[in-house]
Write a structure and sequence with these properties.
By secondary structure, the chain is mostly helical. Helices cover about 85% and strands about 0% of the residues. The chain has 5 helices and no strands. The longest helix has 29 residues.
Length: about 120
């Protein structure tokens, strides 16, 4: 199942996307916490986060959340059904097809906002 094939990549990408979501949550909590120092500080942080580099980070976050969720469903199927184990490779490719369909609108909208 592993040994450098689809299962191995699914494992690595699942861990990386989970860590990316964790980093976002920490930044999000710090941003919300900045409101304790008044609206001036909070508004400066919000303006800082609306720079194009953070918009690209938002695209990475959305990609991580979509992939992590879909791959999590694949893992559930593998853990609780024989079908999931027998067809784990096809399920992984199915995760990528669903990922592309769900991610495309976000990609178009956010990239369009950055480049206009």
């Amino acid at each position: 199942m592993y040994r450098g094939r689809e299962g191995q990549w699914a494992f690595y990408l699942h861990r990386i996307s989970g860590l990316g979501i964790l980093v976002f949550l920490i930044l999000h909590i710090l941003n919300i916490g900045s409101a304790m120092w008044g609206p001036e500080v909070s508004n400066r942080w919000m303006a800082f986060y609306h720079q194009p580099v953070f918009q690209l980070g938002l695209l990475l976050l959305i990609a991580g959340v979509i992939y992590h969720g879909l791959n999590g469903l694949r893992i559930i199927l593998m853990d609780f059904t024989r079908f999931g184990v027998r067809h784990q490779r096809q399920l992984w490719y199915g995760v990528w097809v669903l990922f592309a369909l769900l991610y495309a609108p976000f990609l178009i909208k956010i990239l369009g906002g950055i480049f206009h």
